[in-house]
Amino acid sequence: MLTKSVNPINCILMILVFSLCSCAITHQPAESLFTQDEAASLDLNQLQGKSWDDYVNQNLMGSRSASTGPRIEIKYPLIKSTNSGPTIETTSPSDMSVIFTKRKDGNPVDMSSLEVVGKKGWLKQSLTDKFRPYIKGEEIKATNMPIPKGKFHLQVSIADTGGLKTVENYLLIVK
Known about the structure:
The chain is of the alpha+beta class. It has a single domain, classed as Immunoglobulin-like.
């Protein structure tokens, strides 16, 4: 009978390589919400004084109205009501959970209508494709998403299958 001895060091190396490959597959880092260039062009930090107040009134507070479309519920990071409107403060990387629910007596949520946009005045940058991999049913659930530091205006919109749309604006502050 011929037996072949197994080198214990080779076994350990194989286990280590397998473990590292498994971690790489299951714990891939999330794509950054903004590239550094996008963050620089969308960062609201340079707006101060009257220009900041005008921006808040025209873009964050002035755009609030009752909606008839699906509800947008940000579970985390936590949202606060401030003088600048609905504000999300977080650090990077950040976990995110946003749930979309139909209104009572409303039509089902149409997740294909989801739009997430970074805004600064007339400048708009679609971020929707960066969120698509994290959509699970009627929820966006992202873990460890890198976000460059800054102050950003995010606009989230979603419609139901009947075409009724909700548009919400948020101030995102990343420290």
